[in-house]
Amino acid sequence: MNLSFVKIVIAWLLLCTNVGLKASDFSIIYDRMFNEYLSNPSKSGVESLLQKMDDKGRFKGIDYQAKDGSPRKHVQNLINLAAAYQNSGNSFYRNEDLKKAYLLSLNFWIDTNNEASNWWFRYIPYPKELSKSVILMAQEIKKDKVLFDKTIKYLRWSYENASPSRLTGANGADIIMGSLAASVMTDNHEQMIDFRNQMDRLLSIQNGGEGVEPDYMFSQHSQGGKARQIYYGNYGKEFINSVLFYFEFCNNTQYNSVGISLLEDMYVNGVQWIFFNKNYDPNQAGRYNTSNQYYGQFESMTKRLLNLQTSRKDELKKVYERITGENSLTGNRMFWRFDYMINRRADYMVSTRMSSTRTAGSEAGLGFGEYNYYSGNGTNYIFVSGNEYSGDYFKKFNHRQFPGITAEQDSAKLPIPNWGENASNGNPFAGGVSDSTYGTCGMILDRRELQAHKSWFYFDEEFVCLGAGIHQTNGKALVYTTLNQCNANGEVQYSTKGKTSKLKDPKEIINVNWVLHGKIGYFNLEPTSTFVVACDSILFSANINHGVNPKNGTYAYIVKPRMESISEAKKYGKNIPVQIISNTDKIQAVKNTKLNVTEVVFYEAGSLQLSNEKSIVVDAPCALLWKENTGQITLANPLCETKNPSVIIVKIQNKDKITEIAFQMPTGVKSGSSVTKKLLFEKK
Q: Which domains does the chain have, with CATH numbers?
């Protein structure tokens, strides 16, 4: 037999095999999409839609000239019509009149090509939602070649016309999912390979402020990478939802993405850290202020991830339990890309959200989040019950008193941080250090002509909050530091000069020892501070009043979650295991004498005297954590990539022993992350 002929036959067989594989994969993906999108609408609901449809395929009650995205209801109606036609348990199953009505209405929608004023509608929800009915009615649409070609073109348009900046993060994943049906229905191998490659890119570590950053927090709407914004609670959720659908549809086909491992890392190192008692940190919600609105979606998505039966399914099962209310996750994490720290113990969770010239507080947009201006001023949410900020809290709270912030209490209209504008801080110093068990973080606040050095020191049973250098020159109103503002949860007890009282009305409290509310104790470490405390049937708030135009103001207090009673507060107040070593605009430092752990924020190079015989000297700004029992020192640079020395020298003297440690600092996207070394003393 001729060798050339044999080669041709083999090549033909291989081609047929490959085509068969592709066809098989397309069939698998199509069937999965069909089954996912199939529902069973009520008979009355379908009848109502048919009655509302006119002879052009329009639905009464929809303003098709509107540019606000409201015509989106049309494509949602099409899903119900298609599902009723294809569901064998529906009374409209394979109804010819229903089919004609659907095809007429589909044709109208595509020919009309509604363009909303917000680009998002035409690029994302219109094609994503239309693709559901199109998948269900694929065989019927294919019988009309003109309509079929128009439909495919409509679904592909957003992907083909999206700029690179729109094919990022959640938007990128959503745009792919809006176009996927078109490629599946046309068996387009090249387009599917392109989708796979794009998903691989999206499911990799990003460094431009859109997507999963190196610390596993999710970022979106970061002003072109100029000011990173954390966003798991909304855009992160949308990203996870879309990539999960992609994995579910393409699993075990040649078009599946290799990025599943990053999705697992997101959950283990990011998502589970923000949940406590079925609520999540509101810092993650962006312009949609909430602590639990999307909890159900996170629970559902985590189940779907488990159903993929990945190699880390046992680990993810534990993550699922924690998201759904089991609070065994403990430790401390500094998310250095976002000036953001979380401290967790089995019975409470605390977060600190700072901002800098690199990062932003929560944005506003489309009428949401318009009071978010102060959300990056050192927000300090405290969870014990989990419901501290749930329900209607954000509709009722005082937006000049986000928990933890320092701000002027004036009545002037605040800038609206639309899409992240006006949401950053004026100083680059913000960040912290963590050894995974303990951590400290600090920031230099500089907004609206108000400056303050703010720091937080996290231990096991309590955390310490220090403020120094609080300064304003042209203010018109009092400056407050808010210890907490949360949903009211029972009565308020407080102590002054050792005498315990019950709060009846809003009150200024001088010489306060402690305040107790909602199983959280607030202990004053600066006797001259004036507390302003209020509690009604809706909200509890506790503030420190710094006066108008403070000059070098300070504050110092301890927060102790899970404080159950007055007697416990009295006992703790007499034996506070914390020593403030320094509270200035140069150094803020605290030692937990029970743990023998010292935590320091150096705002500049300098020396800290710990005792007559012990001191720490650093040659650059840094955050430092020293476990004296083990000699372990952990260091980080809160200036991150803004100003990142390659080496920071730490010199520690103890009696007649002295040592110097050279910390090689992480670079690039790791700038700001923590480095740990062991301290070995040498003779002086």
A: 35-161 (1.50.10.100), 188-329 (1.50.10.100), 331-683 (2.70.98.10)
